[in-house]
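Sample intake sheet
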Amino acid sequence: MRVLRLCCLCWLIGVNAALADVVERVVDVPTRPGVSQRMLVMAPEHPRAAVVLFSGGDGGLRIGADGSLGGGKGNFLVRSRSLFVAHDLLTVVVDAPSDRQTEPYLGGFRQTPEHAEDIRGVIAWLRRQGAWPVWLIGTSRGTQSAAYVATTLQGADGPDGLVLTSTILSDKKSRPVTAMPLESLQIPVLAVHHEQDACRVCPPSDLPRLMEKLSHAKRKQLLSFSGGEDRGDPCEAFAHHGYNGIEQAVVDGITAWILATP
């Protein structure tokens, strides 16, 4: 156990060092009337694609004007953001919009037309920056955002690809991703899951249903991972649910798949 924790600590030190070398800037994109969508933007010198990262939980990152985070720092995608940049991906981390900056933040909002409109603005902003493909990547509750937006915004307004990590597969409190009209998706879709994910709303046994519903995806694949360290609540960021200790391998797998997609 001590060795695993030491490896995790070394990885975190490495990520912090990498972040120190990458310039993050805060961008506020006007979306709906009187509303803006704040995001952290990290750009490599020569981007090959752009990724929009949706954190899990309540999605309230509370990004400050200086780029500081008031919440969600430990989330898998948030803490791994510099790893995507290292693969030459322009990386965007989205917060809750300006009219959702108090609790419950994105709770009860992820599957609404207003949320889709906010992300439409983010995608449009990215397309104005360059002619890269734009991918949405969600983790845990963030998969509900990413999948909902992808099924709502298609064509020029929508993403070029979708990645779902630790997908919400079965949930009595809100519509799981498997209940969305995924058969309408014609873009590439990658599903990523930990074989030992013990979160009650992300049972690996439901993954076949997810993959079956992606019947019209241009390209689809399931990447399964194992190992790492499992700590705390099984639905939180440092359990297997959040790929604790194997972040580099997971990001490497995701980015390789994205960059290999025509």
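Comment: The chain has seven helices and eight strands. The chain has one domain: 2-259.
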